[in-house]
Amino acid sequence: MIWATSEQHSRNPSYHLRKGHLAGGNSLGSERRRTPRYTFIASAELIEEASDVRIATRVSELSLYGCYLDMMNPFPVGTLVLVKISAGDAFFEAKSKIVYAQPNMGAGVVFLETEAQYQPVLERWLDEASRGNEKRVG
C-alpha cells in the first residue's frame, strides 16, 4: 500500500488519516509509504480469486502501488483479489492483496501484478489527481 509523505500529511491530511484509520491496529504506518496517495473517487469491483466472490465498491484513495476501497464488509487481510477500477471511459485492473481491513469502513489493497496495458491508465489518473483534478464517477 502506498501512503503520502509525512510532509504531505502535515499540509493536508488524507480522509483516512483524519478518521484514525491508520492509527495502530492493522495499519502499515507512515514508514512504509513509497509514493504519495491521492484522493480519487471511482467505481471498483473486487473479485476474490479463490471463490470468485465479487464485491462492488468505491475507490477513495489511489497511489502507484495500491488503493483504499470503501466497503462495509471487506475481505480478510491477506486475501488475494483482482481489483477492477473504472473512471469515465478508462479502466484499470491489477492482481492485488488486502493489506488491512476495517469492518464497516473499507480496506487497503496493494497492487501485486499490473499488466502493461493498464499501467499508463493508472499513471494518467495519478497525474490528474496530483494536479487537483479529482475524478468523480458513480
Level-2 CATH architecture: Beta Barrel
The H/E string reads HHEEEEEEH
Structural class: alpha+beta
Mean of residue pLDDT? 79
Biggest sheet, strands in spatial order?
1-2-3-6-5-4
Shape: globular
Q: How many domain modules?
A: 1
Q: Give helix % range.
A: 10-25%
> Please, what is the CATH homologous superfamily?
predicted glycosyltransferase like domains
Task: Offer a quick outline of the entry.
The chain has three helices and six strands. With 138 residues, the chain is of the alpha+beta class. Strands 1-2-3-6-5-4 form a six-stranded antiparallel β-barrel.
Question: Would you write up a description of this structure?
Answer:
The chain has 138 residues and is an alpha+beta fold. It has one domain (6-130): Thrombin, subunit H, CATH 2.40.10. The protein is built from three helices and six strands. A six-stranded antiparallel β-barrel has the order 1-2-3-6-5-4.
List keywords for this structure.
Thrombin, subunit H; disordered N terminus; six-stranded antiparallel β-barrel; 138 residues; 6 strands; alpha+beta; globular
